């Protein structure tokens, strides 16, 4: 069976556009996700270049500096341009025309653009978010809405985007967006390998939308619970009801459910559904088996059940999702 191939271009050249003082965490997310050598796990190698309008010493939030060798010319080189943050005291400032030109030129030639946190102000200031849905940190929502009324602001989600332009909300949501970009470019198996190496939990608290679900258990001190979650991930078509999982963990259903929520931040039912959807995504991306069979192997039992939950988690149908990952005939 020939595997399905993504239409998305590979993201092997990543430019991180920094402005002083740059937030250390957001700057480091792109480096961690894309630059760390994970070829042993089947992850394609990428090169990351930090860049800034004026190369040299760059101030970092927290009181230290980094040396940045690359200027805006890096945007002409990159497959992906990440904007980790715009200084908070400059939110109302006009973006330098040279930066605007460089970002627009990168977009015209097909580079993917992604902002983290207040980096959305840079993309919006460059006119790249006009008419689009976007997000930023909730602390800046009022300011963003006032400065950019032509952008549909959504602060209830971890990240937004499509068609090559993406925005992530505050801080850690940059990880979610980067994993989504890895999934789009290289598939679920690669994104999951990156997530496992980063020890990213499968769910986030706070009720925000998140469609990148890494099928790895949360790291907990309770080895029995961790082993149970590992087993559930490996057996999505098994009986994964609370009673069955509690029995495997040698806990009462009530104790299991309480401990599960404390560890993962979600209910056993929602966690199981997310793992099953993740498994279905992998099968849709990498095989040609029919949707009914995908539903069975993923634990949904029937194609209608798969379609219902798949649309809720991913926002599209299994057939449409598979088609988006098909290569040319």
Summarize the model shown:
With 329 residues, the chain is of the alpha/beta class. The chain contains 14 helices and 10 strands. A hairpin with a 3-residue loop joins strand 3 and strand 4.
How would you describe what is shown here?
The chain is α/β, with parallel strands linked by helices. The chain is 44% helix and 12% strand. It contains 14 helices and 10 strands. Strand 1, helix 1 (24-35) and strand 2 form a beta-alpha-beta unit. The protein is elongated, with a radius of gyration of 21 Å. Mean pLDDT is 85; it is low at 1-7 and 201-221.
Structural class: alpha/beta
Order of helices and strands: EHEEEHEHEHEHEEEHHHHHHHHH
Put simply, the count of helices is 14
SS strand fraction: 5-15%
- According to DSSP, the number of beta strands is 10
Q: What overall geometry do the principal axes of the alpha carbons give?
A: elongated
Q: Helical residue percent?
A: 40-55%
Which runs of at least 5 residues are low in confidence (pLDDT < 50)?
Answer: 1-7, 201-221
Major sheet characteristics:
6 strands, mixed
Using only CA atoms, what is the Rg? 21 Å
Strands of the widest sheet, in order across it, are 2-1-5-6-10-9
First-last Cα distance: 14 Å
Mean of pLDDT: 85
